[in-house]
Amino acid sequence: MAGATVTMSEYYTPADRLEEIARRCQAGEPLAPDHFNWLGAAIESYLGKATGSLEEALGLRYGRGGVPWWREKELRERDDALRKLAETFFADLGLCKRSGEISKLALHYGASAWRHDRDGRDMPEAYAGTPREYLWRAFRSGAAMPLSERQVRNIVGG
After folding, report:
1. Is residue 112 part of a domain?
2. Per DSSP, which regions of 32-155 are E strands?
3. Degrees (nearest 5) of the Cα angle 15, 17, 19?
4. Rounded (10°) angle between helices 14-27 and 33-47
């Protein structure tokens, strides 16, 4: 999303909207009219006591037993990285074989390179264009990793 001009309808979640607004504010960029409208309505809702919290007003509240907004974002980022890994490097394999290979790679990466990579903020340049790029992104998401073959199959098969 960074640097791209998008409308609010192109966002997936309220957290994505807030990230775009924060990015624009920090970069000194003007907000789009739909940024003002959405944020203004949320603040008005909160100040008018129509909602119980600022998180709820911003659409960040999750239902009982639901997934918190930040966890949903982590899962979405992890799953996207694993799907891209599957499409880029294992598209010629069947779902079970593909899932098994990704699960093995993730287990190996988690036990070896990730122990060193997790302390760095940026992905090592040598990973670009390799399976480790997508593994790094999946691990960096903050969602649970590595995953079992069955979990990977559910992610990449859908």
Report:
1. yes
2. none
3. 70
4. 110
Per DSSP, the residues of 22-51 read: HHHHHHTPPPPHHHHHHHHHHHHHHHTTSS
Whether 20 and 49 share a structural domain: yes
Helix 95-111 and helix 149-156: axis angle, to 10°? Answer: 120
> Which positions ≥6 away from 150 have C-beta within 8 Å?
99
State which H helix or E strand residue 57 sits in: helix 54-57
Neighbours of 141 (CB within 10 A): 19
State the residue range of the domain holding 40.
Answer: 8-57
- Count of domains in the chain? 2
Burial class of residue 5, CB neighbours in 10 A (0-12, 13-18, 19+)? exposed
Chain segment 91-128, per-residue pLDDT in tens? 999 999 999 999 999 999 999 999 999 998 899 999 99
Residue 73, domain member (yes or no): yes
